[in-house]
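Class prep. Protein, please:
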Amino acid sequence: MDLTLWLGQSLAALAHRPDGVLAVAETVPALVDPVAAGPLQVGDWEFVAANADYLLGGTVLTVLLTVTSLVLGFLLGFPAGAIEVYGDGVLRTLVRKFGVVLRGTPIIVIMIFTYYVLPIEVPINAIVAVLTAVDAALGPTPFTVPTSVPDTFMAATLALGFRSAAYQSQIFRGALESIDEGQLAAARSIGMSRLEGIRHVVVPQALRRSVPGFQNEFTIVLKDTSIAFAIGLAELLKRSHDLFLQQTTAVLEIVLFMSLIYFVLTFAVNRTLDYGSSYFAIPGDSS
């Protein structure tokens, strides 16, 4: 029995019956005893099972949003981390300032900005220009810019990607700084340039050491994809909310099913990254 309904019945009993207290007591078993209240809500689980494909469609969108955001975050975050360690002057200052702003701004504010303020055509045109330049320099490539992507997905990717880049830059900055400076000096002593030493000696070790931090970043980005609900993207949380509205008695069952999906995704990827971290670990490295 619904708690609100029970309270209403109880107040009515107290107001209109001389033995109202006894009447209230009679309604208590129906509230606390599922058997007294009637059969369990098996129909709610059946409703969830019948709409599992709808939720799994949202799961696919959530995974795609997570992957694209992490990739964008890596492509921007790794160079930003390297600039913070090895750069100087105005560029280094700008990178640090942008990172502070992005890390200090709530993700929902960034997402609303990218959707309602930032013209989506600007990043799309920028990506097209980059790929065109790559084609001109290296020849035809299989990469194209999808033009049928919904604006909500593009805006969410940009918001999550930029914010992830701000955090990934700190992950990679710490990993780069953890490599002993003597290794770069040794690379220079055998004839490598500074850039070659960073590329062939420092970066491979830093990437391996950054895996634990990247695991945490993956978990954060995966859960933050639910913020795309605010701009109407039909990811897992948005589709779960759609089902809430169809059958309000199944809220708990839908939330449990949705939570299970998030847990499975997080657990599977973290275990995979654990294996990769162990497999590619630097021999003898205790860092």
